[in-house]
Amino acid sequence: MAKKQKYYVVWQGHEPGIYDSWKDCQIQIKNYPGAEYKSFSSREIAEDAFRGQYRDHITKQGKAAFIDHSLNESIEKNSIAVDAACSGNPGAMEYRGVDTFTQQELFRQGPFSMGTNNVGEFLALVHALAMLQKEQKLDTSIYSDSRIAINWVKLKRTKTKLKKTSKNEILFQLIHRAEKWLHENEFSNPILKWETKIWGEIPADFGRK
């Protein structure tokens, strides 16, 4: 089955406009601080959106439209969800955690220069673990849609190929701190894979792609 065509609106980027491929969109937002972009299902909708403003197409939390998961018995009720977003690879990266059902934002960090999505997902998971431990919520589950990041947490270290530079030195300090926390702390919070193909985008999704 052919992949459905998407159109990408870039409100803030190197060259704002409408692009018909994710690759072309990435060129415009890579290494552009505060990039504003979103995909649409048709060119007509994209053109209409481009005439407006980015904030008109996201919620106050900066993500796609709210989806009520409360009636889905497959999703753990006592849970939070984490996700990361990266403008380019590497590029400006940020991550956050939200309540799975209300989508209330619980934490948000970034953007960090010259990061990757997998690193952001890993940091988000460890941030969530540390937060829940501090709050004594040891039974709360954490959802992530990244198998790689979940595996890194199990290994207690990243296996990123990201190169350390003067631009992402702070990010590598956070990685080291997260790995150190995992080695020094025990946790019982279940880390679960968010089934995107079945449930839709994870609630912590930034709604940009």
Brief synopsis:
The chain has 209 residues and is α/β, with parallel strands linked by helices. The protein is built from six helices and eight strands, in the order ββαβαβββαβααβα. A hairpin with a 4-residue loop joins strand 1 and strand 2 (17-19).
- Average pLDDT taken over every residue: 86
Largest sheet: 5 strands, mixed
Q: Briefly note the structural class of the backbone.
A: alpha/beta
Helix content: 25-40%
Please state how the strands of the largest beta sheet are arranged side by side.
Answer: 6-5-4-7-8
Shape: globular
Descriptive labels:
24% strand; three-stranded antiparallel β-sheet; 209 residues; 8 strands; alpha/beta
SSE layout and pairings?
Elements lengths: L6 E6 L4 E3 L2 H8 L6 E5 L2 H9 L27 E10 L2 E9 L5 E11 L1 H18 L6 E4 L2 H9 L13 H16 L6 E3 L2 H4 L10
Parallel strand pairs: 4-7, 7-8
Antiparallel strand pairs: 1-2, 1-3, 4-5, 5-6
Q: How would you characterize this protein structure?
A:
Helices cover 31% and strands 24% of the residues. The two termini are 21 Å apart. A 5-stranded mixed beta sheet has the order 6-5-4-7-8. It has a 3-stranded antiparallel beta sheet with strand order 2-1-3, sandwiched between helices. Strand 5 and strand 6 (105-115) form a beta hairpin. The protein is globular, with a radius of gyration of 17 Å. Helix 3 packs across helix 4. The protein has helices spanning 22-29, 43-51, 117-134, 147-155, 169-184, 196-199; strands at residues 7-12, 17-19, 36-40, 79-88, 91-99, 105-115, 141-144, 191-193. The chain is of the alpha/beta class and 209 residues long.
